[in-house]
Amino acid sequence: MQVLSSVVNYLLSLGAAIFVPIIIIIAGLIVRMKVKDAVSAGITLGVAFTGMTMLISFMTDTISPAAQAMLKSTGISLPIVDGGWTTMSTISWSWPYAFLMFPLLIIINVIMLVINKTNTFNADLWNVWGKIFTAVAVVAITKPHFGGAGSIACAFVVAAIQIIFELKAADMHQHRIEKLSGIPGVTCTHKMTFLAAVMYPIDCILKKVPALNKQFDAAALKDKVGIFAENHILGFILGIIFGVLARYSVADTLTLAIKAATALTLFPVITKYFMQALAPISEAVSDFMNKKFSGRTLVVGLDWPFLGGSNEIWLAVIYSVPITLLFSMFLPGNEILPFAGIINLALAVPAFLVTGGNLIRMIILCTVFAPVFLWVGTAFAPFMTDLARTTGAVSLKAGEMISNSSIDGPIQTYAFSHVFKVLDGNFIPLAILIVWVICFVLYYRSLSKEAQQETNN
Amino acid sequence: MKKIIVACGSGVATSQTVASKVNRLLKENKVDAQVEAVDLKSVDRYMDSSVAYIAITKIDKEYPIPVINGIAFLTGVGQDAELKKLIEACK
Questions:
Q1: B8 catalytically annotated
Q2: What is the pTM assigned to this prediction?
Q3: Is Transport given among the entry's keywords (chain A) (predicted)?
């Protein structure tokens, strides 16, 4: 035992780019991959980690000085660098217990299916990192109270609850998703849909205003403005805005803009290697589940992009970019400078689902909830920065902090992790948790009723 | 070698999952083609250089190349038929 723990500690000390590939090679062999394929997947993952480390340093070196110059010229202090979801997933996977989330997800899903509490089979194994992300925050908050082992146990319990809610959210959205996307037999298990629960009561009020129920020709509008959502263009524009606010010279502003465009363009390129490395494992799990429940018609839970054909989502995303930037500068309590996370699908997709694709109401909801993402992004910066430092997933200079301005399901993620602050006498997260659960239940009931009516007709 | 594209919102997660799977299936069927995951917003730019487009969203537009249903590869339902269509498009 002593030897084993010192071997493990030694491997951990080598950093995420070494120990995570070792874990994936072992995991690959467990799901019966060929040795050469498992090794290839492992090394690809090491490449992905190292590539991300390089790119994140490049981004922080570009953005941090601009943020400091902005502080001097405008007095607005936004010291947290926004790494977007790609950075957060990298840091999350570097948590030493991250891979245990795979079996946990499968076990809970199988149990829920067997006892008929869900109809969804969650095939979106990539977003296991969303559970890891919540778990990491739970560990950081509970460690001073429960110690190492206790906090990890707590983290897995919270993750398990999140997995159950994800299945429930997938169940309740299925009929509406089928109607909106035109694709039968699938639903969305991504936790970004959680925000729809809190949007629901507000949408109920908005629905009462007849002027807000108009429909738009979203397709024509999207063809005109869609180009702004492309990474290189958006990165360049953000760079120009930051340069102007920082009172950079023309030459420096253009350089900043091109570097910002480079960072945003390359993030998806490197993140693809993560996917490539993890794909064989998630395929093996899917095959296993398909075989296990071959007699039953299951709804397959997927990541959000199959909804991406809807123009309303992209228009809401593009609209949210300037709104989020404006809020970031004037919102009290915000310390994050929106950058890599500014394409905020975690805001637009739940608004799309809750309104059933009504663009005007989506835009109102996006405006109301944009600040939430900035506050939650600020709240998560200490944990993510800490984990990045201890695992070496991201190299940050002293005083630099990193987070994400579009954390998926921000209210639930915040509430489920920060609820443990009651131990410090802070009851606000607990109150938020209760409100979220109540909203979720109400939303669940309303959607179930809608589904029932549709089958009756 | 022929090129096939598959697109999702970021060109990273879902599209790469489909790309990895289809690449493996094509290799098993000895088809000389490569699937590339791209960003949904830039699909039009790849039309000239690709022989097929694997879509995971509802398609309202007409495309000059065959469109394959990508959801089939994610759920396994109807996968064989879509794979056949894809292999046909690569000939």
A1: yes
A2: 0.87
A3: yes
